[in-house]
From TrEMBL:
One Pfam family it belongs to: CTLH_Armc9
InterPro entries assigned: ARMC9_CTLH-like_dom (IPR056327), WD40/YVTN_repeat-like_dom_sf (IPR015943), WD40_repeat_dom_sf (IPR036322), WD40_rpt (IPR001680)
Protein name: ARMC9 CTLH-like domain-containing protein
Region feature (Disordered): 172-206, 219-291
């Protein structure tokens, strides 16, 4: 549209549309073919409107001379257009007024970009380009067979040792090791068992790396046939016990089996019990809190739904309830070439920046899809269907280490209880393919009520919360559960965030049956090594599963939403009594990764604000 319309290159425009129709969309499903025909007709109308607006009636006549043969079969739609150059003030004529509006033009541009992005990701790969991929496919199968044979021999050896058949164990061990040294049962058992803190032996890491280079149909075939079923989840009591007993081998912030010689992050001091029986954190003076308005961004035409800082703190992405996403420069005095307005055909419920390359923004939509937008090239690079039945993608989180993103999809909220069903899945951002489905909560059902997820700062762990009050932690390499604990009887977990150094985990929860809870909302910090409560912040009554919390980089301030209101608090010694500043109409909060500045989205004024938080010291 930016190339052919301003220069009136109707011949090249028509040729390109015909090429796309015959060579791209003809190979796709009928729905996309019909959509492209409709958009082609709209592009032709935009060309005519552009010529009329610039008093180039000769170009209108030239265009119709070129395409009249194709359009004469659409007399109902195009009949009035053949005489448009003879209509006085066509922009006010009821048949043409809509096509002269800016809103229609922007909608056409967004629809065309979305359709082409979707089509180019679905078009089949030419056969001539599949030779290398076929070779990779065969190589990956060979690697899988070799890995399975090694695992089979290891398990046979362990079984023989347990049954006391030393002769069979010796044969199996020698077959596995490929040498003839003298065999000792105790040495074999030690060799077969994983070392302390080491991940269970499975397929080689190189296999997963190579799988990323395969086409989607091959990836699906491999994943369907090669995924090892996850072991049945232990009960809540077992999960808690497992966390305490395994803390020495899998410590927070350190990979299993990895020791770089540096001291692990210092865990916060343990909770102390006051005279009233309440848990309090480290004894520090609780300062007051001041918030200074730094910037305000106006431009959305509907209430804000979500806003997120980019990993470098230079940009902000925000979405509104009418399906519009905007990318802003965080410093309004410094324009950025990333600034853009993106219009989608559905509501965007959540946003997430990809931290590795910092140029990809992921949208979670109300149609059960996740879209990836490249802020540099200003186009969608993928659009994946997460679920047909769980239509609301309420949370998308990107790994800071690997090309992986986690998706929480749920059914639409039902009253105060929120979403009743939800799933957590992991996806590859390069191939746009699903890696694994993870179950959360007290049920092994994949449709348990998942509400939120978060990656650790090192990208080695992922935490997820659910409406049944469970927090579950996974190892990102093995996809297995490594810990889990309940936040309280009758509580629902609405949001989770890792603390400084990945040594602790913050949860936002509501409800509860404990004495004095009164169904209120609270933010709690848990020590991951022991799953004990470090401190608790009482946020007040109300709230819903769509509320969220955010901790600033220094760990000094906590921002939260609660039923359409926001609050920023200082995290002092007695956190429940920390000073806080209320913000009305706030539905989304996020901290600048490099400063104590919080961005908040307003549902009432459709404005995005940035505030700077500062502790007030008494004179």
């Amino acid at each position: 549209m930016d190339t052919f319309l301003p220069s009136y290159q109707s011949k090249r425009m028509v040729s390109l549309c015909q090429f796309l129709e015959s060579n791209v969309f003809s190979k796709l499903e009928p729905e996309l073919q019909r959509a492209f025909k409709d958009l082609t007709s709209s592009v032709y109308k935009k060309y005519v409107v552009n010529a009329i607006e610039n008093d180039r009636s000769d170009k209108v006549t030239e265009f119709f001379d070129r395409v009249a043969g194709r359009l004469r079969h659409q007399a109902t739609e195009w009949g009035p257009w053949f005489s448009i150059q003879y209509v006085k003030n066509a922009a006010r004529h009821p048949d043409f007024a809509l096509y002269f509006t800016k809103a229609w033009s922007e909608s056409l541009r967004a629809s065309l970009q979305n359709l082409l992005s979707r089509a180019f990701h679905k078009v089949p790969m030419p056969s001539i380009l599949r030779f290398h991929l076929d070779r990779l496919y065969r190589r990956n199968l060979q690697l899988r067979v070799e890995a399975l044979e090694v695992e089979k021999t290891r398990l046979e050896t362990l079984l023989a040792i347990q049954s006391g058949d030393e002769a069979a164990a010796a044969v199996a061990a020698k077959a596995r090791e490929g040498d003839r040294r003298e065999w000792n049962p105790s040495e074999a058992a030690a060799d077969m068992a994983p070392a302390s803190g080491e991940e269970p032996r499975g397929r080689p890491d190189g296999l997963e790396v190579q799988l990323e280079n395969l086409p989607l149909d091959m990836l699906d075939a491999l994943s369907d046939g090669g995924q090892t079923p996850s072991p049945e989840r232990p009960s809540t009591a077992n999960l808690t016990a497992t966390t305490a007993s395994s803390s020495s081998s899998v410590g927070p912030g350190t990979a299993a089996g990895e020791d770089d010689g540096a001291a692990s992050p210092t865990a916060p001091p343990g909770p102390e019990e006051s005279a009233s029986g309440e848990l309090v954190g480290p004894e520090r003076e609780t300062p007051g809190l001041g918030l200074d308005l730094v910037s305000s961004f106006q431009g959305h035409e509907a209430p804000i739904v979500c806003c997120r800082y980019s990993p470098d703190g230079d940009s902000i992405a925000s979405s509104s309830s009418n399906g519009t996403v905007r990318v802003w420069s965080a410093d309004d005095a410094t324009p950025s070439n990333r600034n853009v307005t993106i219009r989608t055909a559905c509501k965007v419920l959540c946003l997430e920046w990809e931290p590795r390359r910092q140029k990809l923004v992921l949208f979670g939509t109300s149609l059960g899809t996740v879209k990836g937008w490249n802020v540099d090239s200003k186009r969608f690079v993928f659009d994946v269907d997460v679920s047909k039945s769980l239509t609301d993608v309420v949370c998308v989180k990107c790994s800071p280490r690997d090309p992986i993103f986690a998706v929480v999809a749920s059914t639409p909220a039902k009253g105060a209880e929120g979403a009743q069903r939800g799933s957590l899945s992991l996806w590859n951002s390069r191939s746009s393919s699903k890696i694994a489905d993870l179950s959360v909560g007290r049920s092994v059902d994949l449709d348990s009520a998942v509400t939120c997820a978060a990656f650790s700062a090192d990208g080695k762990s992922i935490a997820a919360g659910s409406l049944d009050g469970m927090v579950t932690l996974y190892d990102c390499s093995s996809k297995n559960v490594v810990a889990g604990f309940p936040v309280g009887a009758g509580c629902s977990v609405w949001d989770v965030k890792f603390g400084a150094g990945d040594a602790s985990l913050w949860t936002l929860s509501g409800g509860g049956e404990e004495e004095g809870s009164e169904g209120g909302c609270r933010a709690q910090e848990w020590r991951l090594a022991t799953t004990e409560l470090i401190r608790e912040v009482d946020l007040g009554p109300g709230g819903s599963p769509r509320d969220e919390i955010a901790i600033d980089p220094s760990g000094s301030f906590l921002a939260s939403t609660l039923g359409g209101a926001g609050c920023v608090r200082g995290l002092g010694g007695n956190a429940s009594a920390a000073a806080g500043t209320q913000l009305e109409g706030v539905v989304s909060v996020d901290w600048n990764p490099n400063a104590s500045e919080v961005v908040v989205g307003s549902s009432s004024s459709s404005v995005v604000h940035i505030y700077e938080a500062a502790a007030l010291v008494d004179p």
